[in-house]
Specification:
- This protein folds into 3 domains: 49-142, Beta-Lactamase (2-Layer Sandwich), CATH 3.30.450; 145-217, Orthogonal Bundle (Helix Hairpins); 220-387, 2-Layer Sandwich (Heat Shock Protein 90).
- Helices cover 51% and strands 23% of the residues.
- It has helices at 2-36, 48-56, 75-79, 91-103, 144-180, 185-217, 229-246, 265-281, 317-320, 332-337, 344-354, 379-387; strands spanning 60-64, 70-73, 83-84, 87-88, 107-113, 122-132, 135-142, 225-228, 250-255, 260-263, 288-298, 301-310, 358-364, 368-376.
- Helix 6 (185-217) packs parallel to helix 11 and helix 7 (229-246) packs parallel to helix 8 (265-281).
């Protein structure tokens, strides 16, 4: 009987000890979890004044949070593709953001960003600076247009130097030939005639270089006037009449020319005269060049189109992509014989652009070419037609 009692007491004591140990262990575990569990992280917030400033900046601007997340960005940053949603997508920019957050020192660097096959790269100047509270400010400026202008200027200077060397070298050689043939009057006359042609070509080249430079530095709309298309054509054809007569080319005018455009009369005349002259030069003798004027309506906007068509040698598809480039010639030999400089069509394109218009070409080899310059029609023209 006593043995059974001792056994029961032992079991009761073991049960009490087990419950106590279990309670102590659970309490200790609960305390450990309370100590180990971190406090919830407060979300990073951009100060309202910073948001206001970022939205006013002309540069692309982003505010980056402590975990590389984009807290705020202006439209320029999204347009340049620096961020997508809440992520910085340019690896070099993201790398510099992390470095600035660690070192708390601003950095400035340039980076080139590809935009896919066939698309030109962006050249960005990027500034990254710490803001406090582990936030980082990123500012970026697109330098692509400036670099493109510099590249264009370098190419233009190089092309000008090359183009000037040719006639200058020819004049020098011809002068030496005249000196060597001093005892041969017939040879002197021959070389002198060639010297005159080269001098004229050199003079025309210098004139067109000056014209193109002036066009690029000038805004013709500052002295714009209302001009009738018929008057511009009168002036342009008057310049080309002698060449047309020399080549026995018949100039034909069709269409309604009682339309008014706004712009610089001299520049518009230059553009049309260049188109007519080219048509004469690249047509066979006794051919016909047609100048047609028409009114077109595109999405409610009215334009005047002047087309210059010839039935000459035509232009291949690959050359059509380049004919408006400076100094580019489809037929170098014919262009040189006729004093061409390769600047005429680039001048036409520039004049059309600064007047709010365009110029385009249709051509087939052996069938001829049609150049069309399009200019905005002035509303007063349509009003006068309605009143009449």
């Amino acid at each position: 009987m006593m043995t059974a009692l001792w056994i029961l007491l032992g079991l009761a004591l073991g049960l009490v000890l087990g419950i106590g140990v279990t309670w102590w262990w659970m309490r200790s575990l609960s305390r450990y979890e309370q100590v180990a569990q971190p406090e919830p992280t407060k979300p990073s917030v951009v100060e309202p004044q910073v948001v206001e400033v970022v939205n006013l900046l002309r540069s692309a601007a982003l505010v980056i949070g402590p975990h590389d997340e984009v807290l705020h960005s202006n439209p320029q940053a999204r347009t340049l593709g620096i961020c997508r949603g809440d992520r910085v997508v340019i690896a070099e920019v993201l790398e510099q953001i992390r470095a600035v957050r660690r070192q708390q020192e601003p950095v400035v660097f340039d980076t080139e960003v590809g935009r896919g096959i066939g698309a030109p790269s962006l050249h960005l100047n990027v500034r990254v600076s710490p803001l406090g509270d582990r936030q980082v400010l990123v500012l970026a400026d697109d330098r692509t247009p400036l670099l493109r202008v510099d590249e264009t200027r370098r190419d233009f200077v190089a092309n000008v130097g090359h183009e000037l060397k040719t006639p200058i070298g020819a004049v020098r050689l011809l002068a030496e030939a005249v000196e060597s043939a001093a005892d041969d009057p017939e040879a002197v006359r021959h070389f002198a005639a060639r010297m005159q042609r080269e001098s004229a070509r050199l003079g025309e080249l210098v004139t067109q270089i000056i014209d193109l430079s002036r066009l690029q530095a000038d805004d013709p709309m500052l002295r714009a006037e209302f001009v009738q298309v018929g008057d511009i054509l009168d002036d342009a054809l008057a310049r080309s009449r002698e060449l047309a007569t020399k080549r026995a080319v018949n100039l034909v005018r069709t269409g309604d020319e009682e339309f008014t455009v706004l712009g610089d009369r001299t520049q518009l005349t230059d553009a049309l005269a260049n188109l007519v002259t080219n048509a004469i030069v690249y047509s066979d003798e006794k051919a016909r060049v047609a100048i047609t004027t028409s009114l077109v309506d595109e999405d409610g906007d009215n334009f005047v189109e002047v087309s210059v068509a010839d039935n000459g040698i035509g232009i291949s598809d690959e050359n059509q992509q380049r004919i408006f480039e400076r100094f580019y010639r489809v037929d170098y030999g014919r262009s040189r014989d006729n004093g061409g400089t390769g600047l005429g069509l680039s001048i036409v394109k520039h004049i059309a652009a600064v007047h709010g218009g365009t110029v385009n070409v249709w051509s087939k080899l052996g069938q001829g070419s049609t150049f069309t310059i399009r200019l905005p029609l002035q509303p007063s023209t349509l009003e006068s037609e309605r009143l009449s």
